[in-house]
Amino acid sequence: MTRPLSDPIPLRDTSVWSSYDAVTILPRVYGRARIKPLRYNADGTQYVVADHAIAGVDAVTLDGSPINGWRWRNGSDLTGHAVALLELAEAPDTSANLAAVVRGQSGNPADILADLYPRADLQDFRVHCRNAGLELGGALTERMTTRAALQFVAEQAGAVWSAGLPGLAMPFPPPESDPIWREFNALDMAGWSASCELAAVVTRLTVPFAWDYAAGQATQSVVLEAVAATREHGAREAERALPWVTTARQAVAIATAWLHWRARPLWTLQFDAGSAARDIPPGAWIEVSHPRIPLQGLYVVTDLDPGYGRGVVKITAQAPAGEAPAVVIVRQSAAFAAIATEYRVQLAGDSVTLTVTDAAGTPLPGARVWIDGRGPITTDAAAKVRFRATPGRHVIYIEADGRQAVTTEVTL
Amino acid sequence: MNAVVVVVGGVHPVEVTGYRLEGYHRPLGGEGANLTVVCAPTAVPAPVLTYPPLGAPGTVRFDDDLVLFGYLAGVDVSADAVQLRIEG
């Protein structure tokens, strides 16, 4: 049995231990995230990095510089609860800024939702996230209700959720291939009204993403604009933070889909339907055909009042007018404290070997590399990719989770 | 009968005749300018209603008085009327 959505996510804090520095939430880490370890013993050599078992720690830094002399292990704390521990050979200065890059529980958004609100029917959304390459990285470090946590995670994945939705979550807008649940015409719709307003139009979107929990700030941001919509409706700016999105590719994909929906007049339609419409789930496509309603065609149901006892179902649905506008990246930038990505290029005839590392030279397996826009090729365990190229100039784009993307050129 | 006329759109403005004007008043210390022009359902051309030029300039006249120069902020449609919201 799942808990009520109004219940808080059960997060422990440091007061469960007999001694602690300050009362701080013990983080729950998903995917790969840079977090601030919490001191666990008096001499400052043991730290807790997650309130559960983790997959690993990739790096430890002190005041931003990588250090050696550390190891991590999954164990248990004084209370017998599973935690992930970081052990340092030497206690750092108490004023120093200790940070660790932790690989926590699965970063698949569906797995995160299932962890927060156990349900058995998340398989469709899990497959969608996997196919779309959606992988989040972040830590729960604040108390919040289950409802707020589900909303937050769904937003990070460019999705919507509802307890009444089969599968709990779905991408938004829903895929065009999804079935049309019901058709409504003038005879099926009573008491209808439709509205659209400028306040809902957004033509330029700023997206801070890749949150650094140790530094308490986003490390990257991207600004996208629907230029034609700006000409038509004026510059309508908004910010949508995606702190758990770790790559520019994901941030751009989510923001683009959002602008396609919001950078044009968005009609909200409300009407009463018969009780047979009660089974329409939120997020479903419906088709509206009514000579007096300004916008005909497909709408997405955004709310449904089943009207128990009244026999009238109140439906709210939305649809944007016109064609989805073209969206361009206006600016992409990184915070001053961005985690750098380095690379080494070795040439041998027409063969190129590229090694991707962090600033300290530590290899970064799993980084993604595009050559002349083709790719990605993922770096192997030694953080290398090898490819053949024709003589001439080639543009290489490197992207590693939570790090600043790099564009470079090689000439063969 | 008094005429309420609203002209919306920049390059190709559309003139719409309404039958009522709501929400405009002139208090001391400012001007209440959330103005609504109420029209018959058929008063607004269908293409304009389907894709309303939100944010485009909007001018409202009552007989010969220029009441407000602003922009189209919203549209509400029901079976009885179309309401154009002009803010300035």
Principal-axes geometry of chain A comes out as globular
Head-to-tail CA distance between termini of chain A: 62 Å
- Supply the helix-strand structural class of chain B: mainly beta
Q: What characterizes the major β-sheet of chain B?
A: 7 strands, antiparallel
Using only CA atoms, what is the Rg of chain A? Answer: 25 Å
Question: What is the distance, rounded to the nearest whole angstrom, between the alpha carbons of the first and last residues of chain B?
Answer: 26 Å
Count of individual helical segments of chain B = 1
Number of strands of chain A: 29
Describe this protein's structure.
The complex is a heterodimer of chains A (412) and B (88). With 412 residues, chain A is mainly β. Chain A has 5 helices and 29 strands. Chain A has helices at residues 109-116, 123-131, 146-156, 227-233, 248-262, and strands at 28-30, 32-35, 38-39, 46-50, 56-62, 65-66, 70-76, 82-88, 98-103, 138-140, 159-161, 169-171, 180-185, 190-197, 204-212, 217-225, 237-239, 266-274, 285-289, 297-305, 312-320, 328-334, 341-348, 351-358, 368-371, 374-378, 384-388, 393-399, 406-411. A 6-stranded mixed beta sheet of chain A has the order 13-19-20-21-18-14, with no helix packed on it. Chain A has a 4-stranded antiparallel beta sheet with strand order 2-9-5-6, with no helix packed on it. Helix content of chain B is 6%, strand content 57%. Chain B has a 7-stranded antiparallel beta sheet, with no helix packed on it. Chain B has one helix at residues 46-50, and strands at residues 4-8, 14-18, 20-25, 32-39, 57-62, 65-78, 82-87. The model of chain B has no long low-confidence stretch (mean pLDDT 89). Strand 14 of chain A pairs antiparallel with strand 6 of chain B, so a sheet runs across the interface.
